[in-house]
Amino acid sequence: MLRLSLIACLAASPAAAQPADALVAKAKAEGEVVYYTELIVEQIVRPLAAAFEKKYGIKVVYWRGDSQAAALRLAMEHSAGRVTADVWSTASGIGALLEGGLIERFALDGELPARYRDPAGFWVATNLIVIGAAVNTAAREPPASLDDLLAPRWRGEMVWKQNDITGAWGFIGNVLTNMGEERGLAYLRRLREQDIAPVAASTRAILDSVIVGEHALVIGVSAHNTEISVKAGAPVAFLPLGGAWATPHTIGVTSGAHHSNAARLFIDFVVSKEGQEIFRQAGYLPARPDMPPLSSKISPELAGFPVNVIAPEELERNLVHWSQVYDHIFR
Questions:
Q1: Residue 210, domain extent
Q2: Same domain for 273 and 142?
Q3: Tens of pLDDT along 96-120?
Q4: What SS3 class is residue 23?
Q5: DSSP one-letter string for 57-75
Q6: What pLDDT does residue 110 have?
Q7: Residue 101's pLDDT is what?
Q8: Other C-beta atoms within 10 Å of 153: how many?
Q9: Is 253 helix (H, G, I), strand (E, B) or coil?
Q10: Which residues have CB under 8 Å from 126's CB, separation 6+?
Q11: Is the pTM of this model over 0.90?
Q12: Which end of the chain is more exposed for a tag (fewer CB within 10 A), N or C?
């Protein structure tokens, strides 16, 4: 992983292009697009679907599950010869999708910086997920650093998602990157003594458990979901803890899609100014450089905290190792 400036990530992009009339006509003839995603339905999926349907008259059918569940569902459908999804989006697991032949290349007019487009053409980014910790501010004074998490007062008070980049695996990767392998492993062994509760749930659900006081602190949660909760009056605060980590949330076309033209048009819409404005209004950090977030607090560049931006390829190379470290130290 490389420590990158978001200014470099968000370099100027070409002027927006409209979808070709031929693509629109073919997509309308298909009449429907099926979307598998891990994005939160009420926050962003439903608004995106409604806007797309209103603009093009094409129905959006969506299913939500975490990245592992989505990959398994896609694999099972392809194995059975019953492909349902046309579009997928995920924060991790692209390697498994590629290896299984579950996704295919697609063309997209120049709307995004090169960093947010797969050179091989399998994905583009919809938004950047900035991840750190979050604390219930009504519970106690928040920690300011990774070392603060080792304090006795946090023993038995923390929770994380056990099997994703947005949870334990991502935190472990960030620690090993920032500290180096030897020092990082030593830190993680000390952290093990804090009895962090592993939870098999979405990070949104885990954050909600912190908000209501079931846990004091979650390790691994997005800055945008935390800020959305803050604006709703929740007693919670995002904590970079000396350095957050981030990864693009990616979207692409499923192999054997029955509505391939509608799939391409939907992706065009999602990364267009109109679609990215929906992400922005929902409180996310859009991929487009001409769409700054509503809150500067979710942007490392604007808020002034360091971040490790993990490209999808880097994530695929390292995720197995990080998961093995989790199994070895924390299980």
A1: 129-245+308-330
A2: no
A3: 899 999 999 998 866 788 889 999 9
A4: helix
A5: --EEEEEE--HHHHHHHHH
A6: 62
A7: 94
A8: 11
A9: strand
A10: 89, 248, 249, 250, 251, 270, 271, 276, 279, 286, 287
A11: no
A12: C
